[in-house]
Amino acid sequence: MSRDGPQIGVVGATGAVGRVTVALLHERGYTNVRAFASSRSAGSRIGTLEVELASPETLGAGDLDVCFFSVGTSASRELVPVAADAGAVCVDKSAAYRLDDGVPLVVPEVNGGRALEHRGIVANPNCCSIPLTMALAPLRDAAGLRSVRVATYQSASGAGAQAIERLRGETPDEHDLRMDWTLDGAELDEESKIRDETRKILELPELPVSATCVRVPVLVGHAEAVWVETEQPLAPADAERILSSAAGLCYERFPTPGKAMGTDEVLVGRVRTDAASGNGLAFFLACDNLRKGAALNAIQIAELVLPIRAAA
Ligand SMILES: NC(=O)c1ccc[n+]([C@@H]2O[C@H](COP(=O)([O-])OP(=O)(O)OC[C@H]3O[C@@H](n4cnc5c(N)ncnc54)[C@H](OP(=O)(O)O)[C@@H]3O)[C@@H](O)[C@H]2O)c1
Predict the structure, then answer these.
(1) Which sign, positive or negative, has the C-alpha torsion 139, 195, 94, 77?
(2) Which residue in 23, 103, 160, 286 has the most C-beta neighbors within 10 A?
(3) With a 6 A CB cut-off, is 38 part of the ligand 1 pocket?
């Protein structure tokens, strides 16, 4: 690493997550940032950065210390190993490596220590799994978890820059709910990702998790209604106190995507008894999916691993 800080690559820098990654890196004082994307936008500019072509030649040159990928699963499968083999620590935001043995799947506030076990690649979880596990981990520690049910209300930006433009182009009369994920048997792949990732992050491989995912006509910010059954009884007031003081969580009476947008915290509130199950608790959360749900979590992972430091 050079004396003026790490050399950082942002691959997918023209996308919804990549643009936030570049902005957050600059906010945090990192100066040696390079932007990469496909041939569609190579040569364009993001602020002062010229976008370079992401290719095996550019990413395999060995001059990057850390590389953030937000390019989708197939491009990640092709390009992440090239950059990792060339010596960069790669933080990948796609689903390509999340469930691979030997690839840590990390939410720093929950299982940050796992990041240190990486062999060149650390996976960033799904934008719903991150806030969900941040709320579940302190409840697991306090009372044990017997089961989790979650209903998501996910914003258009979770589906990328084109989906943002599509929503912006709609009239209010055209707004509708969407379920724009891939059916995987009876479930959407987003729903099985939430179950599999939650189990891996919390290190509870048998935890029953049931998710229903819906896209709502909101630009930024995902919300989740969560119902948990705990092993031991936990009064709502105690659960609220535990959630309010957990790392990265912030108590908000009525958490909404609008309140979460632009913030780094996961907003949690509406903590109450779930009368439909034994030891049942219900709560609601909201999170900026582009920040803590993606770019910020990835940068925090990299800061754990290197640890990278902005030049003073
Ligand atoms: N949006 C979210 O809230 C969120 C949260 C967590 C994880 N993720 C994950 O992050 C990834 C990107 O999501 P996004 O929402 O930012 O999507 P997006 O807005 O569609 O951006 C995709 C980016 O990937 C680049 N790209 C696509 N194919 C490429 C290739 N073959 N080589 C190099 N660059 C390529 C695009 O560059 P061009 O400009 O050249 O097309 C663009 O910069 C996805 O895997 C997604 O699942 C997204």
Answers:
(1) positive
(2) 286
(3) yes
Confidence check: pLDDT of 312 > 50:
no
Using 50, 70 and 90 to split pLDDT, how confident is the model at 287?
very high
Contacts of 14 (CB under 8 A, 6+ apart): 35, 37, 41, 44, 46, 51, 161
The CA 185 to ligand 1 mean position distance, Å, reads 26
Tell me the pairing of strands 266-273 and 280-287: antiparallel
Structure tokens at 54: 């992401």
Which pLDDT tens digit goes with each residue over 10-45? 999 999 999 999 999 999 999 999 999 999 999 999
Give the 3-state secondary structure of residue 159: helix
**Ligand 1 centre distance from Cα of residue 137 (Å):** 29
Over the stretch 188-241, which tens digit does the pLDDT of each residue have? 999 999 999 999 999 999 999 999 999 999 999 999 999 999 999 999 999 999
Mutate-to-test residue for ligand 1 from 44, 67, 70, 190, highest number of ligand atoms within 8 A of CB: 70
CB of 127 within 6 A of ligand 1: the answer is yes
Instruction: For a ligand 1 pocket test, name from 53, 71, 215 the mutation site with the most ligand atoms within 8 angstroms of its C-beta.
Output: 71
Q: Catalogue the active-site residues.
A: 127, 222
User: What's the rounded Cα separation, in Å, for the pair 82 and 98?
Assistant: 18
Nearest atom (ligand 1) to Cα of 289: 3
Reported as a pLDDT band with limits 50, 70 and 90, residue 1 is low
Whether the CB of 45 sits within 6 Å of ligand 1: no
- What pLDDT is stored for residue 310 in this prediction? 56
